[in-house]
Design goal:
Layout: H1 3-14, H2 22-28, H3 30-33, H4 43-49, H5 55-62, H6 67-76, H7 81-93, H8 97-104, H9 115-137
Helix pairs in contact: 1-9
Length: about 140
Amino acid sequence: MNIVDCTFKLVTAIFPDDAPNMLANVLTLKSALVNIIEPDFGLLDQLLNLEVVTCSDVADIGSERTVSQRNEAVLNFITSEDQCDKFVKTLQQTGQQHVVNFITQNGGENNSDSVEPIIIIIIIIIIITTTIFTVLSS
């Protein structure tokens, strides 16, 4: 095992749930997202290309009367982390970074004050792991 693997295992053991759960954020924010996503200018085509939706799904979504209803229909297809990752990528590719920011920040609920202490702890873990690895390797 190398130092990178040791450090990764140590960090993930200490912070197992720190990675943002995009799917949970999308599901939590669904009622707000239906009002801010733009589904009609490339989003559906990109989701089709990435196999998140089928041609039949695109037709069904397109038949919804309002933008909010189309957005709700799109969001109903986002049921896995893989689909969610593709959805976020598609939002970025269609000029909807503001929606991506809204999702990644859990609607503005993330507290940026908590980031700095985590970074300090990770740096300390890397230093400790490096020291242990060096001692064990010699």
